[in-house]
Amino acid sequence: MASHGPVTRLPSFMREGLLGSIEGLCRGYTGQLDVAGGSTGDGLQVGVADVNAWALLKLGLTVYFKDLRRVLPGAPGFLQQLELALGVPVSAGLSAFVNAPGSGLALHHDRFDQLLFQIRGRKRFRYLPNRYAPQPSVQFTPFASAPPEWGQSYRHGFPRSTNELLEQQLSSVELEPGSVIFMPGGLWHTTAEQPDHALSVVVSVRAPSRLDVAMNLIRYYAVQSPAWRESAYTAWSTDPALAADEQAAFALLFAQLGERLTRLPTQDAFAALSLDAFTKGTLTEYPQGARFARFIKLPNSSASFAADAEPGKLRCVVKSGPFNRPPVETVLAFEAHARGVVEWVLGSERAFSTDELCDRFDQFQISELLNLLEGLARAALIRPLPAIEWDEGQAARSDPTP
What we know:
alpha+beta; about 25% strand; three-stranded antiparallel β-sheet
């Protein structure tokens, strides 16, 4: 769980620049802050604003610097390599904790896996395996209010107090500059009552769960159906007859959906989650290597053409984005004879499939058309539809009722 060695073995961006000293971090960081205080068995962590971090340390508190990924030059590349090694989409965050002597975090566990890098000062880290709930879906401590989804993870039993956990004898490890410790999600741990000033950098990997992947695909699939998009009026009615009608309609749809899901290509689910993040802006890069079977032209995007300096090439300038902001321009370069494909896409008024495009423009190799579609999607001229088509006749064929 813990590895020890000289601090020089850690990436330089964790030891230099903004993280070169505790004072430098307090002076130079301008992002969100949390502050924490308390003992092993009880504590509080809250967000603060317009407060000097150094002053908070002088008050004997722990200061949490919530987002360092975007402010440390070497951090994005390091985190991208970690995500690549773990085979996950963009999900790793970088933060830092600075402890004043006597401070730290009370006993708790986090939702996601983390790596803690000790940069400056000594830190005593105490921990206990979670014997109540493997892979809990929430962050939790017994002295705080339970999150909404807490009961699903802890339905077979839970600690009634932090004292119950402390009676199980926590293991302890002393972290020195250069130490690294892995904290799996759900591990009970505390850093309360630290002996010295200490600076630690934490990498959190908020990788999507299998349930996240599944629910995202189901939503993209089922939302194509008018019946699933329909509002569930009367389901909560005080009139039992009205409520029963809507609940029966829902039960039928739910049963039919369960049968449909057995034929839903599960390999689509992972690209669908990455596409969802790209569409919402939480993923800045279009999913690499993802192939989609259907696309739709975005109504608020446009494209214009110009000759490229290279003979036989064409420049396509795509403008995209909401109408109430300056458009984002993306310049694509491709073979001039592909202009007809792009113009056909620009004139489309419904979703189209890659098979349809291949049949219409059979002079192109399939790989050429797929690469062109990927470029247009990356530029936000078109958007993939990541789930298979919802066949309205399928429910009738699978409905067991006469």
